[in-house]
Design a protein that fits this description.
heterodimer; A: about 260 residues; mainly alpha; two-stranded antiparallel sheet; about 5% strand; B: about 160 residues; Alpha-Beta Plaits; 2 domains; about 15% strand; rod-shaped
Chain lengths: ~260, ~160
Amino acid sequence: MDNFTNTNKNRRYKAHVSIFGTTQLHLKSPYMVAFWSVAFPGFGHLLLSKYIRGMLLFIWELFINQKTHLNSAMVYSFMGDIESAKAVLDVSMMHLYIPVYLFAIWDSYRTTVDLNKIYLLAERENAPFNTFSIGALEINYLDKKNPIVAFLCSLTIPSVGQLYINRFVLGFFHLVMTVIIVYYSHLLEAIHYLLLGDISKSTSVLDAQWLFYFPSFYFFTIYDAYTNTVENNKLFEREQKNYLKKHYQPAGFTIMKGNKVK
Amino acid sequence: MQIYATFESSNYIELAITKLEEKGIKDIFAVPLDNRTEERKIFDTIHQSDGVTFVGKGMGLAVIFSVIGASRGFVLEWGPIYWGLIGAISGFALGVLIDLYIYKVYKKKKRVLKGKNSEIILIIDCDESQGEVVEGVLWEHLALGLAKIKNNQEQTNRIIENV
């Protein structure tokens, strides 16, 4: 059940609240979005709430990187072992990687520029949108949340920050991906041995190919949760202002002159 | 009598308004304020967010530094996790420092508070007998400040009644 049904009388809407999350347009830096696409194809699109495209690119990256051993090659390169880097790369698939990678970066950049324009138009039009949704599976509504809490939640396990702000689609996706990446990279085992003080065992148990998905993934979930909390709060405030102006500014109201009393 | 109260924008103000309406007080006027230019906060809080995040560059550099740190960690003594963490923390710190520098030094003059600091003024017109109740409701729902205004005429009447 929603509190707003689209009347098709408006041209653009700046947000939509559904049981699966709050989707909103807001101004973003195209460079920041492009950067996240560089860090991991798909992340830029996820920031833009283009989930299907983002998740497809993410899964594609996972698949093609596993096939070409790009992460391993990267680790060898940083270690200065260029020969091993060359040897580990699978050339047959490598050239499939590059066009999609560059497309993800370019596409997220130009989409951000476009959506920023759309946002400005939607903001000026100020059309009413759905702000409350209740259904058999979930409840979602505009509300204020604390960005610091979103930040701290995300620090624990990727996906918790997204769940905190009801970003359900990403929360679920991130949780599944976290389990996969942590399991195959043996990250938690490595941390376990580090805590026991056995550094060489900790290093040997790690799988470099899988481990190197983790940094960009981990920091992305923090960034995504934090910025979206801030933007959701701003959306809440603007919507409330509109509501109060519309319903609580009666024409006949006069201000009383007098003295302040206790 | 009129009662003025200021609120931060949150669900509490709507709770207060609906509670007053339940009590039969219908003469309510709300004035959402626009924002002013102000010293930027470094971290956005639930009350304050100015649209510029100090997390963006930090997270970006944390990714880059931790990837390189962890790679090098495979050959360094402390191993990939410690070096990855060192990379992440130093990258994040560097990013925040760059942002701080940009906003403290570079853009000092141009600051406009975009997001909020929004407060709402609520004016409630009610009978003097309801004053206490309205005041109670407003305080209960986290009013920031509150003042009751009485018409001079009302005051004189009261003084006469008392005499």
